[in-house]
Amino acid sequence: MSTPAVHLPVPRIPGRRGRLQDIPVEGAKRVLLAAPRGYCAGVDRAVVAVEKALDRFGAPVYVRKQIVHNIHVVTELETKGAIFVDEVDEVPPGAHVVFSAHGVAPAVVDAAADRGLQAIDATCPLVTKVHREAVRFARDDYEILLIGHLGHEEVEGTAGEAPDHVTIVNSPAEADTVEVRDPSKVVWLSQTTLSVDETMETVRRLRERFPQLQDPPSGDICYATQNRQVAIKKVAAEADLVIVVGSANSSNSVRLVEVALEYGAKAAYRVDYADEVKQEWLDGVATVGITSGASVPEVLVQQLLEDLAGAGYRDVAEVRTAEEDLMFSLPKELRQDATGRRDDRSLGGRRQP
Description:
It is a single chain. This protein is α/β, with parallel strands linked by helices. Helices cover 33% and strands 17% of the residues. The protein contains 10 helices and 14 strands. The protein has helices at 41-57, 71-80, 106-114, 125-139, 153-159, 172-175, 196-209, 223-236, 251-262, 298-310; strands at residues 30-35, 61-64, 82-85, 96-99, 118-121, 143-147, 166-169, 186-190, 241-245, 268-271, 287-292, 316-320, 326-327, 349-350. The strands form 4 sheets. The chain has a 5-stranded parallel beta sheet. Strands 3-2-4-5 form a 4-stranded parallel beta sheet, with helices on both faces. The radius of gyration is 21 Å and the shape is globular. 44% of the residues are buried.
Protein backbone atom coordinates (compact mmCIF):
# COMPACT_ATOMS: atom_id res chain seq x y z
CA MET A 1 0.00 0.00 0.00
CA SER A 2 1.35 3.43 -0.90
CA THR A 3 2.02 6.02 1.79
CA PRO A 4 -0.80 8.61 2.07
CA ALA A 5 -0.06 12.09 0.82
CA VAL A 6 1.27 14.53 3.38
CA HIS A 7 0.14 18.13 2.98
CA LEU A 8 2.39 19.86 5.48
CA PRO A 9 4.88 22.48 4.29
CA VAL A 10 8.42 21.25 3.88
CA PRO A 11 10.36 22.65 6.85
CA ARG A 12 13.25 24.96 6.18
CA ILE A 13 16.59 23.62 7.35
CA PRO A 14 18.12 26.11 9.83
CA GLY A 15 21.04 27.96 8.28
CA ARG A 16 24.40 28.97 9.71
CA ARG A 17 24.15 30.50 13.14
CA GLY A 18 26.58 32.76 14.97
CA ARG A 19 26.52 35.37 12.19
CA LEU A 20 25.23 38.33 14.26
CA GLN A 21 27.77 41.10 14.81
CA ASP A 22 28.64 42.68 18.16
CA ILE A 23 27.98 46.34 17.32
CA PRO A 24 28.18 48.85 20.20
CA VAL A 25 24.96 50.52 21.37
CA GLU A 26 24.14 53.14 23.95
CA GLY A 27 23.87 51.40 27.32
CA ALA A 28 24.76 47.89 28.45
CA LYS A 29 23.53 45.00 26.35
CA ARG A 30 21.30 42.53 28.17
CA VAL A 31 18.60 39.90 27.66
CA LEU A 32 15.40 39.62 29.67
CA LEU A 33 14.23 36.01 29.45
CA ALA A 34 10.52 35.54 30.16
CA ALA A 35 9.38 32.69 32.36
CA PRO A 36 7.22 30.70 32.05
CA ARG A 37 7.87 30.10 28.36
CA GLY A 38 7.89 27.16 25.98
CA TYR A 39 6.19 23.79 26.45
CA CYS A 40 2.96 23.69 28.41
CA ALA A 41 1.56 20.52 29.97
CA GLY A 42 -0.81 19.86 27.07
CA VAL A 43 1.93 20.14 24.45
CA ASP A 44 4.30 17.98 26.47
CA ARG A 45 1.61 15.31 26.79
CA ALA A 46 0.85 15.34 23.07
CA VAL A 47 4.49 15.12 21.95
CA VAL A 48 5.25 12.37 24.46
CA ALA A 49 2.13 10.54 23.25
CA VAL A 50 3.49 10.34 19.69
CA GLU A 51 6.93 9.26 20.92
CA LYS A 52 5.48 6.55 23.15
CA ALA A 53 3.12 5.37 20.42
CA LEU A 54 6.15 4.89 18.16
CA ASP A 55 7.96 3.00 20.92
CA ARG A 56 4.94 0.85 21.75
CA PHE A 57 3.55 0.10 18.30
CA GLY A 58 6.46 0.83 15.97
CA ALA A 59 6.66 3.10 12.95
CA PRO A 60 4.76 4.36 11.22
CA VAL A 61 2.29 6.03 13.54
CA TYR A 62 -0.04 8.45 11.80
CA VAL A 63 -0.97 11.84 13.22
CA ARG A 64 -3.95 13.86 12.06
CA LYS A 65 -2.76 17.44 11.46
CA GLN A 66 0.31 18.77 13.24
CA ILE A 67 0.46 17.26 16.72
CA VAL A 68 1.29 20.77 17.98
CA HIS A 69 1.85 23.94 15.98
CA ASN A 70 5.63 23.92 15.75
CA ILE A 71 7.47 22.95 12.60
CA HIS A 72 10.62 21.87 14.49
CA VAL A 73 8.66 19.44 16.66
CA VAL A 74 6.84 18.04 13.63
CA THR A 75 10.08 17.56 11.73
CA GLU A 76 11.73 15.78 14.67
CA LEU A 77 8.79 13.39 15.00
CA GLU A 78 8.84 12.70 11.27
CA THR A 79 12.45 11.54 11.56
CA LYS A 80 11.32 9.06 14.24
CA GLY A 81 8.60 7.56 12.04
CA ALA A 82 5.51 9.72 12.49
CA ILE A 83 3.48 10.44 9.34
CA PHE A 84 1.33 13.57 9.41
CA VAL A 85 -1.87 13.62 7.36
CA ASP A 86 -4.69 16.09 6.87
CA GLU A 87 -7.58 13.68 7.39
CA VAL A 88 -8.13 10.17 8.68
CA ASP A 89 -9.15 8.88 5.25
CA GLU A 90 -5.45 9.11 4.33
CA VAL A 91 -4.55 6.58 7.04
CA PRO A 92 -4.41 2.87 6.10
CA PRO A 93 -7.27 0.87 7.64
CA GLY A 94 -6.34 -0.62 10.98
CA ALA A 95 -3.34 1.67 11.57
CA HIS A 96 -2.66 3.72 14.68
CA VAL A 97 -3.59 7.40 14.45
CA VAL A 98 -3.02 10.13 17.02
CA PHE A 99 -5.40 13.06 17.30
CA SER A 100 -3.53 16.33 17.87
CA ALA A 101 -3.46 18.46 21.00
CA HIS A 102 -5.97 20.84 19.42
CA GLY A 103 -8.79 18.30 19.52
CA VAL A 104 -11.16 16.95 16.89
CA ALA A 105 -14.86 17.04 16.20
CA PRO A 106 -16.98 13.92 16.88
CA ALA A 107 -17.29 13.44 13.10
CA VAL A 108 -13.52 12.84 12.92
CA VAL A 109 -13.70 10.26 15.72
CA ASP A 110 -16.53 8.51 13.87
CA ALA A 111 -14.61 8.57 10.58
CA ALA A 112 -11.59 6.98 12.26
CA ALA A 113 -13.78 4.26 13.76
CA ASP A 114 -15.38 3.57 10.37
CA ARG A 115 -11.92 2.87 8.94
CA GLY A 116 -11.04 0.59 11.83
CA LEU A 117 -8.26 2.89 12.96
CA GLN A 118 -6.71 2.50 16.39
CA ALA A 119 -7.12 6.06 17.62
CA ILE A 120 -5.09 7.67 20.39
CA ASP A 121 -6.55 10.95 21.61
CA ALA A 122 -3.81 13.45 22.52
CA THR A 123 -6.24 16.36 22.89
CA CYS A 124 -5.14 18.76 25.62
CA PRO A 125 -7.40 18.19 28.66
CA LEU A 126 -8.10 21.93 28.79
CA VAL A 127 -9.45 21.77 25.24
CA THR A 128 -11.50 18.72 26.18
CA LYS A 129 -13.01 20.81 28.99
CA VAL A 130 -14.25 23.35 26.44
CA HIS A 131 -15.70 20.54 24.31
CA ARG A 132 -17.66 19.29 27.30
CA GLU A 133 -18.94 22.78 28.01
CA ALA A 134 -20.18 23.05 24.42
CA VAL A 135 -22.02 19.74 24.71
CA ARG A 136 -23.59 20.74 28.02
CA PHE A 137 -24.81 24.14 26.86
CA ALA A 138 -26.10 22.77 23.57
CA ARG A 139 -28.03 20.12 25.46
CA ASP A 140 -29.69 22.94 27.43
CA ASP A 141 -30.48 24.69 24.11
CA TYR A 142 -28.15 27.66 24.61
CA GLU A 143 -26.69 29.50 21.67
CA ILE A 144 -22.91 29.34 22.04
CA LEU A 145 -20.79 32.28 20.93
CA LEU A 146 -17.39 30.68 20.43
CA ILE A 147 -14.66 33.32 20.53
CA GLY A 148 -11.82 32.12 18.34
CA HIS A 149 -10.21 32.11 14.93
CA LEU A 150 -12.26 30.65 12.11
CA GLY A 151 -10.38 27.75 10.55
CA HIS A 152 -8.18 27.03 13.58
CA GLU A 153 -8.20 23.31 14.35
CA GLU A 154 -9.22 23.85 17.96
CA VAL A 155 -12.18 25.99 16.96
CA GLU A 156 -13.25 23.44 14.34
CA GLY A 157 -13.14 20.68 16.94
CA THR A 158 -15.15 22.60 19.55
CA ALA A 159 -17.72 23.82 17.03
CA GLY A 160 -18.08 20.26 15.79
CA GLU A 161 -19.42 19.19 19.18
CA ALA A 162 -22.58 21.28 18.65
CA PRO A 163 -22.62 22.70 15.12
CA ASP A 164 -26.27 23.77 15.28
CA HIS A 165 -25.68 25.80 18.43
CA VAL A 166 -22.29 27.43 17.78
CA THR A 167 -21.55 30.78 16.18
CA ILE A 168 -17.87 31.73 15.86
CA VAL A 169 -16.86 35.26 16.85
CA ASN A 170 -13.47 36.08 15.33
CA SER A 171 -12.76 39.45 16.91
CA PRO A 172 -14.10 42.27 19.09
CA ALA A 173 -15.44 43.92 15.94
CA GLU A 174 -17.54 40.87 15.14
CA ALA A 175 -19.08 41.07 18.60
CA ASP A 176 -20.81 44.26 17.39
CA THR A 177 -22.58 42.50 14.52
CA VAL A 178 -23.22 38.90 15.56
CA GLU A 179 -26.90 37.95 15.81
CA VAL A 180 -28.50 35.43 18.18
CA ARG A 181 -31.89 33.74 18.22
CA ASP A 182 -32.71 34.30 21.88
CA PRO A 183 -30.69 36.90 23.84
CA SER A 184 -31.87 35.32 27.10
CA LYS A 185 -30.15 31.97 26.34
CA VAL A 186 -26.67 32.74 25.13
CA VAL A 187 -23.26 31.78 26.52
CA TRP A 188 -19.68 32.48 25.44
CA LEU A 189 -16.82 30.01 25.23
CA SER A 190 -13.36 30.57 23.79
CA GLN A 191 -10.38 29.04 22.07
CA THR A 192 -7.77 28.31 24.73
CA THR A 193 -4.84 30.15 23.10
CA LEU A 194 -6.19 33.65 22.60
CA SER A 195 -5.05 37.01 23.92
CA VAL A 196 -6.65 37.40 27.32
CA ASP A 197 -7.11 41.15 26.87
CA GLU A 198 -8.67 40.87 23.42
CA THR A 199 -10.98 38.07 24.53
CA MET A 200 -12.22 40.11 27.48
CA GLU A 201 -12.84 43.06 25.15
CA THR A 202 -14.89 40.78 22.90
CA VAL A 203 -16.87 39.57 25.92
CA ARG A 204 -17.43 43.16 27.08
CA ARG A 205 -18.89 44.13 23.71
CA LEU A 206 -21.05 41.01 23.60
CA ARG A 207 -22.42 41.73 27.05
CA GLU A 208 -23.32 45.29 26.05
CA ARG A 209 -25.57 43.82 23.38
CA PHE A 210 -26.70 40.74 25.31
CA PRO A 211 -26.89 41.60 29.03
CA GLN A 212 -27.93 38.05 29.96
CA LEU A 213 -24.83 36.52 28.35
CA GLN A 214 -23.56 33.68 30.53
CA ASP A 215 -19.90 33.00 31.32
CA PRO A 216 -18.33 29.55 31.08
CA PRO A 217 -18.07 27.71 34.42
CA SER A 218 -14.35 28.58 34.49
CA GLY A 219 -12.03 30.51 32.22
CA ASP A 220 -11.41 28.79 28.88
CA ILE A 221 -8.08 30.46 28.04
CA CYS A 222 -5.53 28.03 29.39
CA TYR A 223 -3.28 28.81 32.33
CA ALA A 224 -0.14 28.46 30.21
CA THR A 225 -1.34 30.95 27.61
CA GLN A 226 -2.18 33.43 30.35
CA ASN A 227 1.12 32.88 32.17
CA ARG A 228 3.18 33.49 29.04
CA GLN A 229 1.26 36.66 28.27
CA VAL A 230 1.71 37.97 31.82
CA ALA A 231 5.46 37.30 31.65
CA ILE A 232 5.96 39.03 28.30
CA LYS A 233 3.98 42.04 29.49
CA LYS A 234 6.52 42.54 32.26
CA VAL A 235 9.47 42.01 29.91
CA ALA A 236 8.07 44.23 27.15
CA ALA A 237 7.90 47.27 29.40
CA GLU A 238 11.72 47.29 29.55
CA ALA A 239 12.61 45.90 26.11
CA ASP A 240 13.83 47.69 23.02
CA LEU A 241 13.18 44.49 21.09
CA VAL A 242 11.18 41.33 21.83
CA ILE A 243 11.82 38.09 19.96
CA VAL A 244 9.18 35.36 20.23
CA VAL A 245 10.25 31.86 19.23
CA GLY A 246 7.32 30.04 17.66
CA SER A 247 5.74 29.00 14.38
CA ALA A 248 3.47 31.16 12.24
CA ASN A 249 0.47 28.85 12.73
CA SER A 250 0.87 28.90 16.52
CA SER A 251 -1.92 31.12 17.77
CA ASN A 252 -0.40 31.64 21.20
CA SER A 253 3.01 32.54 19.71
CA VAL A 254 1.48 35.15 17.40
CA ARG A 255 -0.47 36.58 20.33
CA LEU A 256 2.78 37.00 22.29
CA VAL A 257 4.13 39.31 19.59
CA GLU A 258 0.94 41.37 19.72
CA VAL A 259 0.98 41.54 23.52
CA ALA A 260 4.63 42.59 23.57
CA LEU A 261 3.94 45.51 21.25
CA GLU A 262 0.84 46.51 23.17
CA TYR A 263 2.75 46.57 26.48
CA GLY A 264 5.70 48.70 25.52
CA ALA A 265 8.19 46.81 23.36
CA LYS A 266 9.59 49.15 20.72
CA ALA A 267 9.67 46.25 18.24
CA ALA A 268 8.68 42.59 18.31
CA TYR A 269 9.20 39.71 15.90
CA ARG A 270 8.44 36.00 15.72
CA VAL A 271 11.01 33.46 14.49
CA ASP A 272 11.10 29.68 14.15
CA TYR A 273 14.89 29.53 14.43
CA ALA A 274 17.68 31.73 15.71
CA ASP A 275 19.14 32.22 12.25
CA GLU A 276 16.04 34.18 11.22
CA VAL A 277 17.02 37.12 13.45
CA LYS A 278 18.16 40.00 11.24
CA GLN A 279 21.14 42.16 12.13
CA GLU A 280 19.15 45.34 11.62
CA TRP A 281 16.70 44.31 14.33
CA LEU A 282 19.53 44.85 16.82
CA ASP A 283 20.44 48.36 15.64
CA GLY A 284 20.49 50.60 18.72
CA VAL A 285 19.02 47.82 20.89
CA ALA A 286 20.34 47.50 24.43
CA THR A 287 17.65 45.26 25.95
CA VAL A 288 16.29 42.21 24.14
CA GLY A 289 13.28 40.39 25.57
CA ILE A 290 12.87 36.71 24.70
CA THR A 291 10.01 34.29 25.12
CA SER A 292 8.61 31.26 23.31
CA GLY A 293 5.18 29.89 22.53
CA ALA A 294 3.65 26.98 24.38
CA SER A 295 4.60 24.47 21.66
CA VAL A 296 8.29 25.43 21.45
CA PRO A 297 11.07 23.18 22.80
CA GLU A 298 13.62 24.97 24.99
CA VAL A 299 16.51 23.99 22.71
CA LEU A 300 15.35 26.62 20.19
CA VAL A 301 15.46 29.34 22.84
CA GLN A 302 18.94 28.26 23.91
CA GLN A 303 20.14 28.49 20.31
CA LEU A 304 18.80 32.05 20.15
CA LEU A 305 20.59 32.95 23.38
CA GLU A 306 23.85 31.57 21.96
CA ASP A 307 23.53 33.69 18.83
CA LEU A 308 22.71 36.80 20.84
CA ALA A 309 25.68 36.16 23.13
CA GLY A 310 27.87 36.30 20.05
CA ALA A 311 26.42 39.73 19.35
CA GLY A 312 27.31 40.94 22.85
CA TYR A 313 24.08 40.11 24.67
CA ARG A 314 25.67 37.93 27.35
CA ASP A 315 23.95 39.35 30.44
CA VAL A 316 20.80 37.22 30.75
CA ALA A 317 18.24 37.82 33.51
CA GLU A 318 15.16 35.62 33.87
CA VAL A 319 11.91 37.46 34.54
CA ARG A 320 9.67 34.91 36.24
CA THR A 321 6.02 35.65 36.97
CA ALA A 322 4.67 32.15 37.75
CA GLU A 323 5.71 28.58 38.47
CA GLU A 324 4.39 25.67 36.38
CA ASP A 325 4.78 22.06 37.48
CA LEU A 326 1.61 20.43 36.16
CA MET A 327 1.77 17.20 34.14
CA PHE A 328 -1.28 15.75 32.39
CA SER A 329 -1.85 12.01 32.31
CA LEU A 330 -1.03 10.16 29.11
CA PRO A 331 -3.77 8.79 26.84
CA LYS A 332 -5.01 5.51 28.30
CA GLU A 333 -3.53 3.44 25.45
CA LEU A 334 -0.02 4.60 26.40
CA ARG A 335 0.01 4.32 30.17
CA GLN A 336 1.89 1.05 30.09
CA ASP A 337 4.40 -0.54 27.73
CA ALA A 338 4.07 -3.80 25.82
CA THR A 339 5.11 -5.78 28.93
CA GLY A 340 2.41 -4.17 31.06
CA ARG A 341 4.80 -1.96 33.03
CA ARG A 342 3.18 1.34 33.96
CA ASP A 343 4.87 4.51 32.76
CA ASP A 344 6.20 6.74 35.53
CA ARG A 345 4.19 9.74 34.33
CA SER A 346 1.12 7.88 33.11
CA LEU A 347 -1.28 9.49 35.57
CA GLY A 348 0.16 13.00 35.51
CA GLY A 349 0.38 15.10 38.65
CA ARG A 350 3.12 17.52 39.66
CA ARG A 351 6.71 17.56 38.44
CA GLN A 352 9.30 16.84 41.07
CA PRO A 353 11.78 19.70 41.64
